[in-house]
Amino acid sequence: MKGKKLLIIAVVGLVLFLIIGSPERAAGIVRDGFGLLGDAAQNIVEFAANIF
After folding, report:
1. In terms of C-beta density within 10 A (0-12 exposed, 13-18 middle, 19 or more buried), how is residue 26 classed?
2. Residue 18 CA to its chain's centroid (Å)
3. Number of C-alpha atoms within 13 angstroms, CB side, residue 30?
4. Domain that includes residue 46, residue range
5. Taking the mean position of all CA atoms in its chain, how far away is CA 19?
6. Contact 18, 26 (CB under 8 A)
7. Separation of alpha carbons 52 and 49, rounded Å
8. CA-CA distance, 42 to 47, in Å (whole number)?
9. Domain count, the chain
10. DSSP one-letter string for the chain
11. What pLDDT is stored for residue 43 in this prediction?
12. Which of 23, 34, 50, 51 has its CA 20 to 30 A from that of 41?
């Protein structure tokens, strides 16, 4: 339990460091991530449409 809590704190600290250190780069990473999720959702819908 203690290790899990320490890992969460470390990850949150790293994310905050990256956002504060380079906000433009962090925004680009988030934008790209949402773009990938949108593409994946669109591909799943196309797949399902082609099945039926």
Report:
1. middle
2. 14
3. 9
4. 1-51
5. 13
6. yes
7. 5
8. 9
9. 1
10. -HHHHHHHHHHHHHHHHHHHH-HHHHHHHHHHHHHHHHHHHHHHHHHHHHH-
11. 96
12. 23
Which CA distances in Å does 9 have to 12, 15, 17, 42, 44?
Answer: 5, 10, 12, 34, 35
Distance CA(36)–CA(32), nearest Å, equals 6
Model confidence pLDDT, tens digit, residues 3-52: 899 999 999 999 899 889 999 988 998 899 999 999 999 999 999 999 98
